[in-house]
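User: I'm writing a short report section on ligand binding and want a predicted complex to refer to. Could you take this sequence and zinc ion and write out the structure as C-alpha cells? A short remark afterwards would be nice.
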Amino acid sequence: MSTQRAIFTLILIIFGLWLFQPEDGVSARLYYRVPTEVDHMKEGDIYYISLSDMTEALNIEMDYDPLTFEAVLNSGNNKANFNLFSTYIRLNNSLRNITYPILYKDADFFVPAITTVPVIADLAGITMVWDENELSIRAAELEHNVLDVEFAPKSNGYLCEIILAHPLEYEVLVTEGSWINITLQGGSLKPGYISNRPHSRVIREIRAFQFENSSQISINFRTDINEMHHNLALNPPRIQVSIIDTTFDYSAIDTIFADSEFDPIDVIVIDAGHGGSEDGAIGPKGTREKDIVLDIALRLEKLFEKDDIKVVLTRRDDNTLLLDERANLANGKGGEMFVSIHANWFEDASAKGSQTFFLAAALNDAARATAMLENKSILLNEEGEMADTADELDLILFDLLQTEYLAESQALAREIQTEMIKSLRTRNRGVDQAGFFVLNKVFMPSVLVEVAFISNKHEEALLGKESFRQKAAEGIYAGIKNFIDKYSPDR
Ligand SMILES: [Zn+2]
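Assistant: Sure. The C-alpha cells for the complex follow:
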C-alpha cells in the first residue's frame, strides 16, 4: 500500500482506538460462569492483572510465601509456581516464559495478562482468551473453542469477529440471500448463546449449528454482499470477516483493513540489531553480536547498489538505538520491507544453525526463548532499565496492522531462509514465528534473521570471517530478491 494511505489508515485507527480506550481504574472483567471484576494495572505497554483476583474467580487454590516471594497455585493435579520479578512460571515440570516480570502491588502479585492468561488456563484445564481491546478475559470449559461472535460497524463496511479459544481451520461461503456461512473445522460452540448475540440493524439474523466434527455460524445481512474479506487474526485468536460496503452509512471513524494488493517495493529497511551500549549476544571468544551484524548489514546495502531499490540502514555505526527509533525510522522513511539482522545465542553451546523469524505469537519454547533474548536487550534503555517503549496503543496496533502483513512476512522469511542456507550451508533451523518487539511496530512485511549461533564455538569463528559474513549478506540479498520477484513483479 502507498505510504500516504498507510499513514492515513494508521491515524484513523489510532483515533478510533483512542475513543474506545477503556477508562483508567476500570477493572478488567473475567467472564467465567458469572462475570467477575479483576484488578488490573498498566506497566509500559503491558496490561497486568491481579493474580489473587484471578485465582479467586477461577476457584484455584493459592498459597503465598512472603519470605520467598513465591505464590503456589494448585488446581486439580496441576501446580504452578509464581516468583516475584521472574519472567518464568513453573507449571508442573515445565518452565513457561511470560516475557515480562511478575510485579508486586498492594500485597498482591500482578502478572502480564497477554502471556500469563494461557498459563493459568492450562493450570485450570479450561480455555481462556485475553482481549486487550475490551480488557476482558473469556473463560470457558474446554468443550467449547468457539467462544463468541462480535460485530462492529466501520466507515467502509462491517466487521464480524468470531472469537476462538485457539486458531481453527475455517471456510467462508457466501450463499444466496446475503448469507455468510463460516464453517469451523473441529469447532465446538453453544448454538443458543451464539445465535442470540447482540448485533445491529445491518444483520437480520444469526444462526449457529453444532455438527459432529465442525460447527457453523451463518450471518444474514439485510443488504447485498458484494465484497468480502476474511482472515485469521491472533491475540485473541479470531476469524475476521469484513464486508466492504460504504452504503451502510455509519459515522464510525475507523476503517476495515485496506486491501492487500502489493505495491512495488522501492524502499527496504535493513536493521543491524543492537549497537552502542548494547552488545547483543557475546561469543565464548568475546565476539560481539552488534559488530558482526552491522558488518553484514553494510555488505547487504552494498549488494543492493546495482538495483533500483533504496536501502535504509537503521544504523551504520556503533550507535545505541531504541526499538522506537528503529521502528520510527523504518516507518518514517517509507520502508516497504524490514529485515532485522542478528546472531543467535543459547546456553547449550552445541546449538547451531540459521533461522528466520516473522512476527506472530511464539508457538514453541525455543522461539519464545529467542524472542525473549532479543526483546530483553531491545527493551533496555541506556541506564539498563526497562524502557517505556511507546504509547499504550502499540499492542493493539500491532494486532490490527500486522495481521495485514503476516502472510507477506512469512513468505519473506521463507525466501530469505532458503537462500541463506544455500549460501552458508549451515544447519537449517527453518522459519518460525515469535513475538519480537522490534517487528511489531513496523508497518510493513518484516522478518528477523538469526544468521548463526555466536554461542557456538565453531559458528562464532565463522561469524568472525569476512567471507562468511559476505555469504550471509548474499544469501539474505538473494532471498529478498526472490520475494520481490514473486510478490512485487511490477518492479
Ligand atoms: Zn540479537
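A remark for your report: Residues 143-248 form a domain with the Immunoglobulin-like fold (CATH 2.60.40.3500). The chain has a mean pLDDT of 80.
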